[in-house]
Write a structure and sequence with these properties.
The chain is of the alpha/beta class. It has 13 helices and 23 strands. It has a six-stranded antiparallel sheet, with helices on both faces. A five-stranded parallel sheet has the order 3-2-1-7-17, covered by helices on one side. The longest helix is centred in the first third of the chain and has 24 residues. The chain is globular and about 65 Å long. It binds flavin-adenine dinucleotide (FAD). Flavin-adenine dinucleotide binds next to strand 2, helix 2, helix 3 and helix 8.
Length: 460
Amino acid sequence: MQLDAIVIGAGQAGPPLAGRLTGAGMKVALIERALFGGTCVNTGCTPTKTMIASARTAHVARRARDYGVLVDGAVTVDMARVKARADGVAARSREGVERWLRGMPGCTVLRGHAAFESPTQVRVGGEVLSAPRIFINVGGRASVPRMPGVGEVPHLDNSSILALDRVPEHLVVVGGSYVGLEFAQMFRRFGAAVTIVEMLPRLIPREDAEISAAIEEILRGEGIALRTSAKCIALVPHARGASVSLDCADGEPLVVGSHVLLAVGRRPNTDDLALDRAGVATDARGFITVDDTLATNVPGIWALGDCNGRGAFTHTAYNDFEIVAANLLDGASRRVSERVPAYALYIDPPLGRAGMTETEARATGRPLLVGSRPMTRVSRAVEKGETQGLMKVIADARTREILGAAILGVDGDEAIHGVLDMMSAHATIDVYRRAVPIHPTVSELIPTVLGEMKPAPPPG
Ligand SMILES: Cc1cc2nc3c(=O)[nH]c(=O)nc-3n(C[C@H](O)[C@H](O)[C@H](O)COP(=O)(O)OP(=O)(O)OC[C@H]3O[C@@H](n4cnc5c(N)ncnc54)[C@H](O)[C@@H]3O)c2cc1C
């Protein structure tokens, strides 16, 4: 089959790219080997955020008395219904993507595993497709660490945990980063005993220490056991399910649970693409090497989304599509390095993040201004009875541009967008301070924090 373009993967970048390319009159084939919508729709953002909404409802119901609302009897969770709700939301989204692609004029949808035959050819089953432009959007999957016992002890990952239709008695989460923390809090609120095991001395070590500490306090406050500095994690068979050996500096050397979730990172789906036949280069971890426009080392081949290692989020994959489409079809010269890194951690209350942490900003060596405020001093949070967390902003003392921010607190995932938009517009803190935010909101305190910023003490 001779085409103008081939798109491998129906994740977050592939389908909208197929839409733009066919809209420009190109004949396109899109190949998907598993589920339309990819990770986000089927085993990532959509089901987890749907289940987190169920978990929050249980949590609020248990706290109802704090608000003067009386709930008769115990609050319990019907996991089968929680699962059915998440399955339904994901299925509607998945079907929407598939319907869109199948109805797209100029787009041929093929089901199957795609692999390169040459720099311009891709094989799907018995069929070989040719095109001068090939776009790789193959995403990633949970990595299985080479820890002792992993082959003998049954364990869950972010996909298989979604199939549980009963609340585990005791879930042991190995990995104290984004995916692990969201599942840990969610299952605790569903009624499971939960232990988080993390090799490093603190949870979510990519964030500033005070953010990690506040998150640890939130999780401990809900009865989640934390075992950090677990230096020598191993899975050990046990009559009650599984146990995880920790070899911690202090505390019990073993934690016994009914289920173990491994949430220790993700790897790209590039090992079975026969990239060598096309000559496409990857780094040591298998991420496809791309330049600032997402072009690979082979002319005519681009890599978008999680598989290029330049982002690990749905919005970064979608932005990859926007960059490639604008450069190819609109004569633009957009670059990945122009985007402000941003993400949220959907524990409750959530952490919204934009730009650098204070640690990263300090490493650049520039003079900094730092401002912060606990959520206990945000009236919207007080009124809602949800005062955990803090907000924090870092700016360049010379240019007065915002370098980064963290909002850990109620509505932090939304409020961070004020900062993100200002950073994307390269606006200074002085511009932001003149905004007139709506009262009462979490966002209204950001200009206040900017007005109270202090020079960061020198390192050390
Ligand atoms: C538990 C969890 C929660 C998450 N929550 C969030 C969140 O709240 N917000 C957020 O922004 N991000 C979240 N993410 C990350 C987000 O899901 C990914 O960043 C996003 O899905 C990446 O999109 P993508 O298009 O690069 O790849 P994917 O969505 O993984 O899509 C790749 C597609 O390619 C297909 N494919 C792979 N290889 C081949 C092949 N050889 N032939 C044919 N088809 C192939 C796959 O089947 C898949 O459908 C979460 C991830 C996880 C695991």
